[in-house]
Design goal:
Helix content: 25-40%
Distance between the termini: 33 Å
Shape: globular
CATH class: Alpha Beta
Largest sheet: 6 strands, mixed
Number of helices: 3
CATH architecture: Roll
Strand content: 35-45%
CATH topology: Nuclear Transport Factor 2, Chain: A
C-alpha cells in the first residue's frame, strides 16, 4: 500500500486518464494550468496554446489511452505543490474497450499545483522507453 501522497498522485493520474477518455477537449485542457509545459516522445509544448493543440489531436483520435501504473513515487509534496514520477504500461483501446495491440512500457513525471479548481498539472513529461 502506498503512502497518502502516493495515493494522491495515483488519483491525479486516474483523473487525467478519465479526462482523456472523454475526448472532450475542454475537459482535457482544464486539467492543465495556463503556463503548462507538456513534453512527450516527439513533442515539446512550452505554452498553453501548443499544449491544447496537442490535446486536440488526442481528443480527435478514436483510440483511448489507458495506463496501468506499477510504481508511483512522490518526489516533493506540500499543501500547494506535488511532484511525482510513475512507471508502468500504456495500452490503447477501441470504442468497444478492446485493447489495440500489446501494452507498452510508459513513464511520466508530473508537477501538480493546487488551484481554486483543485489540483492541476503544470508539467507533464510522458515517454515510452526505447528498446536498446
Amino acid at each position: 500500500m502506498g503512502t497518502e501522497s502516493d495515493n494522491a498522485a495515483r488519483g491525479l493520474l486516474v483523473e487525467l486518464e478519465e479526462r482523456l477518455a472523454t475526448h472532450d477537449l475542454d475537459r482535457m485542457a482544464e486539467f492543465f494550468t495556463d503556463d503548462v509545459v507538456l513534453i512527450g516522445d516527439s513533442v515539446e509544448n512550452f505554452d498553453r496554446s501548443s499544449t491544447v493543440a496537442y490535446l486536440k489531436l488526442m481528443a480527435d483520435m478514436t483510440p483511448t489511452v489507458r495506463w496501468d501504473w506499477d510504481r508511483v513515487s512522490v518526489v516533493y509534496d506540500s499543501p500547494e505543490v506535488m511532484c511525482f514520477a510513475a512507471a508502468g504500461a500504456m495500452t490503447f483501446y477501441n470504442e468497444e474497450q478492446e485493447p489495440l495491440g500489446q501494452s507498452e512500457p510508459f513513464r511520466v513525471t508530473c508537477l501538480a499545483v493546487r488551484t481554486a479548481a483543485g489540483w492541476r498539472l503544470q508539467h507533464f513529461h510522458g515517454s515510452a522507453p526505447q528498446a536498446e
